[in-house]
Amino acid sequence: MDFYTILKNLHSYNRYALLLVITFVLVRSLMGWLGKGRYEKLDSATGGAMLGLAHLQLLLGLILYFISPYAMKGSLDPLNLNRAWVVYFKMEHITAMIVAVALIQVGRTASKRATDDVSKHKKVAIYTLIAVVLIVGTLAHKGLLLGNVPV
Ligand code: HEM
After folding, report:
1. Which of 46, 53, 112, 128 has the most CB atoms around it within 10 Å of its CB?
2. What confidence score (pLDDT) does residue 151 get?
3. Domain boundaries in the chain?
4. Measured from the CB, is residue 20 less than 6 Å from ligand 1?
5. 151 CA distance to ligand 1 middle (Å)
């Protein structure tokens, strides 16, 4: 297996790990915020895991961006059969995902700075919710939420 295929697979599988942890964090933070629950060690640990997976995804994506035939190496020539994918990865995917990871980071930092448990949950809930909408929206309309780029 070549370097590109390994990175592509890692980026592809890490999406499931990230989506799973993000969903868990989102549900717990919403419940904690609206139900005025305590911010527990588990919240901090899963929040940290979410941030780590998001940064890993960003790093893998950034490298892929320069070696994938669907990004920098892809042609925007109207005759290219993969042009729609090249447009998507060259512009839409990278922009939306960088913003999403930044939102996850801001939510984490803001929740660490917050002094009481409910506002810790609230910061995580709000920023993570927007990030999830962005990630799911950007992947779903291309069939990438659970699927792959056709080869
Ligand atoms: C939350 C962050 C991200 C998620 C959930 C995500 C998800 C995905 C998914 C599901 C695919 C399709 C994989 C497949 O076909 O099996 C993909 C491909 C790709 N992603 Fe991301 N991505 C993220 C961030 C990024 C970022 C920040 C970049 C660029 C800087 C990036 C660049 C790419 C590229 C270039 C491909 C095409 C790979 C190829 O098939 O050659 N991704 N991404």
Report:
1. 128
2. 75
3. 3-58+94-140
4. no
5. 15
